[in-house]
User: Fold this.
Amino acid sequence: MWTKALTISSIVILLIFFQNCAPSFESASYSFTENTSTFNASPTVNSCNSNVEVPKRRMRLLSKKEYSNTVKSILGKLPNSFTESPLEGIFDGYTNYADNLIVSETVAQIFFDNSLLIANEILENNMFEFESCLAKHDTCNHSIKLMLETVFRGYPIDTVLIDKYLKFYVDQFNLLETKKESLIIMLAAVFQAPQFIYRSELGIDTRSDLNTLKPYELANQLSYLFTHSPPDKELLKDLKNKTFFAGSPKVKAHALRLSEKSNTLNVFIENWLELGDLSYKTKKFALPGSDNNEVLRSLAGELNLLTKKIIDQNLNYKDMHSLQSTFVNANNSKIYVDHPQPNETYKEVTLNKRKGILSMAPFLVAHSNPDNSNPIHRGAFVLRKIMCGKIQFPKDIGALGEEPVGEQFTTRQLAEASTEKPGCINCHVSFNGYGFALESFNEWGLFREKEAGQNINTETTMIISGKQVHIKDSVDLSNYISTSSDAQSCFAKNLLTYSLSMEEPDTCFSDKIKRSLATGASIKEVFLSIINTDQFTKRKK
Amino acid sequence: MALNDSRRHFLKTSGLAFCLLNSIFRSRYALANSTAPKVYLFALPNGLPEEFFWPIGNGRNFKLTPTMSPFDNLKPNMIFYRGAHLGPNNQNNHNANWMTLYTGLRPIGGNVLSPNSYKFLGESIDYHIAKALQQRTPLAMIGQKGGQYVDTITTPGKNQRAITTNDGLAVFKKYFSNTPQHDQQSAERALQSRKSLLDFVRNDLSSIQKELTGFEKEKLEKNIEAYQRLEQIMANKVNQSKSLCKTTNPPGGTNYYDRARGHIDLISNLASCNLIDSASYPFAADAHPSVGHNQDFHAFTHQWHEIYTGKDTAKINQYSNQIKFYMEQVAHFCKKLKSVNVEGGKNLLDKSIVIVSSNFALDSDLKNDHSNFKNGKPKGHPFLIISGEGGPLKTGQYIQEAPTQINHCKMLTSILNAAGVAAKGFGLHPNSETLSSIV
Assistant:
């Protein structure tokens, strides 16, 4: 009893908002039927005549995943004791936001430690023919050249650069008096060099206000966007042959190839939906006959397959919110109880009580409390990241009053009671309803019809963009989101924030993307359409 | 460019030298964020009698009890906080209370008859801090398993109990075999090498930085500064390694005193060598023959009401000695930290937060009771915090508040913030805010 009241109170405290903090939406016009769950979107976005805003020239630090993948691609594995993370400054759920990726003292220490581990690994495995270098000094420049070509991912390697590292090696030898140690120090310098830990987006310096990215910069940009890994051999080959550059047909060809090679969408969806590391979520109660950890781990696999399906099957925005199948194995079938599975192999199953990605277990589990569904948080998330409404946090949380207590109440009832005061409801009214619509799914994403002896109530009426909207349940919510102009705009903005690593993508560009989404272009197509734009290939001085 | 061939004879020793060099500087688990305080948790078993623990006096004018006298020279560093409770619904069970104490959550499952079936629900505060600050420490817990003369070392992981073994020495060797040794000449040479490496990287960064403006330039500047700072840390490490950074293996045998002291020395040495950022140490619940205990310590503590009200001086002294023994170890730990100078004229204790508590607040008024309740109301749980003067915590005071008012999550939230992890709450109280009296 006390647990539930306490937990609810914590949610409420977290999300009490000021009066007059109604969510702000960009104006959008679409035909609308009041008090119905059917929405026919017909966006009328002005055409974009102005110059679009492009990201500034920058050095973009590799994100955690990119850094690990890059090391893995060189060594074939991560060394023992390797620390995976540069500390990521997460912005609105995004782990790749350029301005937040900064080398703090902590990150510098990690890079330093890791560089020595990597260096050791290279020598242990005689990579880049460094054994010859140890035996015969005049082969060292060859080894260094081989290494730099791989490690610097297409950055032009000339004799000046090779000599720089060779000289550093010799200096180290004069100090340390052992070749192996000296080589390790030299290699450690390479693995902390800006050409390794950063992605250069400086561009070719011209008199123009816009610098076109250098071919190797574009290759990196493309490869990391689609695979979160450095350019592969094929891309490097075209780079070497000078057939890959901004505007060349090779750009689109490689983009297409890379998009099919790996699960491009997975990290974006993880970031957009703020799923975090699903295996580290905590749930109070175990599902019958299951181990919490195993179930949680299986959700990452489910998400991976769902996002792969979106790309492989050329699904569009509406399709994503209309998904009625997911991937189930023995572990997450404890959530999708109608589809028991015998082993760890995932099987695609059709679901009849769920629709859209928000009704799948990865989202529902990530956005709930250890012991309840947390409709307030779920609702706030939908407002913030699905509808791009703004929420302002309260300055003062002092006047909460008594919390409702009792096992006889449903989570929704407790949430409603906790937010009904005028100082709370003025803001909560703008998002609680989204969460209530998802109340048929508990903290595990398990479908339920009853709670605390009562029928689950998922109906809600909300004011969205100045209109009264009645939402019956989660299916209705997905229907609404899949056709809402605001939601499409929001998705377009999120897609650009992620793919350009910038906070506020150009609204005009965002509108173009939104129009593509509204006309039913697949998400893969939209992704691919970004790569030949100025936003992707140029940088502002 | 050619290498000096006359130096080649040194190659024969390169393997050894490199090990040494790495052990001093690379330190796999080395200081990740040198500015954030480190957190060390000490836990006393079977409750802590209020009569032994709480000082006499109030505020800044307080006097330690004889049992707490090992801390006499550390009074300016101490905070006694009396008033936080473990929640009106805590389980009144040894294991359950342990879990609640440092996770701020109530465990699930289990009952008094099968207490070991309780399950952790979340991270303990030390692990939470280590994770949030990206601190790298393999050591979540080193301690002595209750009831047996065996060591338990626990390494961090999900729900904290990723690896538990009774073979403490084996675990220690696995994680700390690469501990610093002493070779002044090699150390100095290694330092020079590392400095030149950092200089090289900084120069590289500077050349790129020149091409940037505005925020991008600042970003690279921050990167360069981070490497400068790293260089300072390395220099400090060498200085520490010259005198204080000596690690020892945990001692074996059945001498409780030696082994406990050995563990404490191990933790403080690992801390001074920057090999760990946090650790928790639960003292064994065994009787302690070296201070006069030969009986079942747990059963003994259940007699506290009879012992105290019956004025059984011999047993009161026995009990006091046992608690004092625990406190001696913690005080020894704190003093060792205090003796280690770090940058900025500070010592290691200034950069640490040491928390001492227990699973119960024993009350002599209550018969046969390991309980955190008195007359149906939660009692003020024993909390002692030791940290640097003038640091993030308001040390040198004994704070007493109405015990029913403050959930200990507020205390844990205060510790989080003092440790550099901005948090509005912790555990069951995600918005508890902090205790303004201590932080």
